C-alpha cells in the first residue's frame, strides 16, 4: 500500500497529484516549464486552487509551449486577463511571459532546461528520509 503524506489527504485532486507527480523526477522540458509556470502562479495562493485551474492554464497558455508564450503580445495578455479559467493577475501573467523567454534562453545556453536544472544535483534526485513535516 502506498504511504501518503498527510498534506495529500484533503482531496482526491491532492491524492492524484501526490501519487502520480509529487517527488517524481522530471526530465521533460515541456513538463518542467509547465511546473515553472504553475509554481509561479501559485505564489500567495493555495496549490489546490492552481491544481483546479490547471486544465484552464493548459488551454489558455497553448499547452505550455514556451516558444509561443514568449511571443504573446498585449492583446493576448488582455485575453488572458479576461479568462475565468486561470488566475487573472497581470503581474503573474507577465511573469509567465518573462519566464518563457528566460526558459528559451536557458535551453539555448544548456541544450535543455532539464540539463540546466539537473546539473545542480549531478543528475540524481535527492532522497531524504524525513519522517515528519517538521523535519522538512
Put the structure in a nutshell.
The chain is mostly helical and 136 residues long.
Overall description:
- This protein is mainly alpha-helical and 136 residues long.
- It has a domain at 26-113: Endonuclease III, domain 1, CATH 1.10.340.30.
- 56% of the residues lie in helices and 0% in strands.
- The protein has seven helices and no strands.
- The chain has helices at residues 12-20, 29-42, 47-60, 66-69, 74-81, 90-110, 113-118.
- The two termini are 23 Å apart.
- The model has no long low-confidence stretch (mean pLDDT 94).
Topology (SSEs and partners):
Elements: H1 12-20, H2 29-42, H3 47-60, H4 66-69, H5 74-81, H6 90-110, H7 113-118
Helix pairs in contact: 2-3, 2-6
Strand content: under 5%
Helix content: 55-70%
Order of helices and strands: HHHHHHH
Biggest β-sheet description: none
Query: At the first level of CATH, what is the class of the domain at 26-113?
Result: Mainly Alpha
Mean pLDDT: 94
Radius of gyration: 16 Å
Q: What form results from the Cα inertia axes? A: globular
User: How many helix segments?
Assistant: 7
Structural class: mainly alpha
Termini Cα gap:
23 Å
DSSP E strands, number: 0
CATH superfamily of the domain at 26-113: Hypothetical protein, domain 2
